[in-house]
Write a structure and sequence with these properties.
5 strands; rod-shaped; alpha+beta; five-stranded antiparallel β-sheet
């Protein structure tokens, strides 16, 4: 009985050993861990980008006075100073000619071939109408001698006189003789017979007015 039990126990133990060895013989493949490549990074911070250099203009060269020397090293004499341009003296402009005294153009007088003209001493006399009155008054009193008309010569005489503020005449004289005495006398007589003449214009401020009356005759 005991022998049967022992034999059964031995058989069980042998069976367990066989099973254990069979398990150990079976290889089980367990996948290994995957390999991952990792790049190592330097923990130091990245350097900042380079700052572009600003090109500064080169300083202007200093001008130094170079004293002239010849090839032998001997100092040369200084250059001759430049001559200053002298402006020409301003040209003197000739003075403008003084305006001629006012004059009344010659006009025909009473008789055929007779003409009379008037010039005055005052340069600012602008009253032409007054000169016309004077000429008409004297022309009415002038008549050339009959002999002048018969001879047919061309002659001229000028009588000068002054007119006061009220028209009275003074300083009557022969300024330019014609060369024919009887013609000159007729001109003087015409002026004297015209005294007094019309009063001077109110706008003329002088006390008197100088007149030069020309008597011209030419055969018709």
């Amino acid at each position: 009985m005991r022998g049967a039990v022992l034999g059964s126990g031995v058989a069980h133990v042998a069976l367990l050993l066989i099973l254990a060895s069979a398990r150990m013989a079976t290889s089980v493949m367990i996948p290994g861990p995957e390999t991952v490549q990792v790049a190592l990074v330097d923990p130091t911070p990245l350097a900042p980008p380079p700052v572009p250099k600003v090109e500064t203009p080169p300083p202007e060269p200093k001008l130094t006075e170079v004293k002239p020397l010849d090839d032998t090293g001997v100092r040369l004499p200084p250059p001759a100073p430049k001559k200053k341009k002298v402006a020409p003296p301003p040209q003197e402009t000739p003075p403008a000619p003084e305006p001629a005294p006012p004059a009344l153009p010659s006009a025909k007088l009473g008789s055929a071939g007779l003409k009379g003209d008037i010039a005055v001493d005052a340069r600012d006399f602008e009253f032409t109408y007054y000169l016309v009155l004077v000429r008409n008054r004297i022309a009415a009193n002038w008549a050339p001698p009959a002999g002048m008309i018969a001879q047919g010569n061309r002659v001229r005489a000028v009588v000068a006189f002054r007119i006061g503020r009220g028209g009275a005449l003074s300083a009557v004289r022969m300024e330019q003789a014609s060369g024919m005495e009887f013609f000159d006398r007729s001109a003087l007589r015409a002026v004297v017979l015209s005294d007094p003449l019309p009063p001077l214009p109110l706008g003329f401020t002088a006390s008197e007015l100088g007149i030069h009356f020309g008597f011209d005759w030419e055969a018709p």
